[in-house]
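Work through what follows:
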Amino acid sequence: MRPLRCVCLCLAVAGWSVPAAAQVTVGFDHPETYTDAALYRDHGGAKAREPAMQGIRQHLELLGQRYLRPGQKLTVEILDVDLAGRFEPWRPLATDVRFMRDVTWPRIKLRYTLQDNGIVRAAQTETLVDQAYQGRAGPYLTSDPLRYEKAMLEDWFRARFVDGRPPRH
């Protein structure tokens, strides 16, 4: 018998189980009402909004894989998104460009529940804001359209589920 099969068979016979991997589930509550929804109506509608939602979902899932322990389950419901910057449609040849200003910081309102092996460990509604977003040198590519939101989400994630300290902003 091969050594790997022998180990697996021994574990199965002993009744040991491998803990379930961490899981993150992300939902979006009425994205058509988000702060940026009116802007997206003028710039491609729901089709233009989808990449931002997908990017936020994928990033939270990645953070869960990176930081949560096996057996933990995080459910996040996004309640509002206000991406960094603003469209300035009065600018000729730049109607689809988001202009970053000191007062156009990213903001995400969310509700989350963290379970650890089925036991609720934390549940809260929070509004994440990064007013110093332009002064940060984050690890995300400057070509990533969600670099400010991803940095803000990572700060929040680490503070809530890893360090236990408030996020730096």
